[in-house]
Amino acid sequence: MGMCLPCLGGAADDVVVTPDPDIRRRQLAEAAEKRQKETTYRGVKNPEAVERKKKKQEEIEKQEMTSSVSGGGGGLRWQVG
Question: Is the entire prediction scored with pTM above 0.90?
């Protein structure tokens, strides 16, 4: 009779301890960031170069915005022809 349930003796060893909510939340956030980076750079051989180009483009756009604001709208002019 004692042989029909041998797995119950080791059931306490198989219990998985779940981490506290803060640790679990951090792990999930890290995993989400990793997945997002992987999907963003899928098929890109050099993601660092892409990131540098993106930052450089943003800096150029920012400089254009600050120069157009400080210039007082010098970019657009009405022409009557």
Answer: no
Task: Burial-class residue 25 by CB neighbours within 10 Å (0-12, 13-18, 19+).
Answer: exposed
* Chain segment 16-65, per-residue pLDDT in tens: 777 899 999 999 999 999 999 888 878 888 888 988 999 999 999 999 88
Of residues 61, 43, 40, 62, the one with CA closest to residue 51: 40
Tokens (6 digits) for 37: 């980076």
Cα–Cα–Cα angle for 53, 59, 62, rounded to 5 degrees: 140
C-beta atoms surrounding 68 within 10 Å: 13
Where would I find the beta strands (DSSP E) of 1-81?
none
Collapsing DSSP states into helix, strand and coil, what is residue 44?
Answer: coil
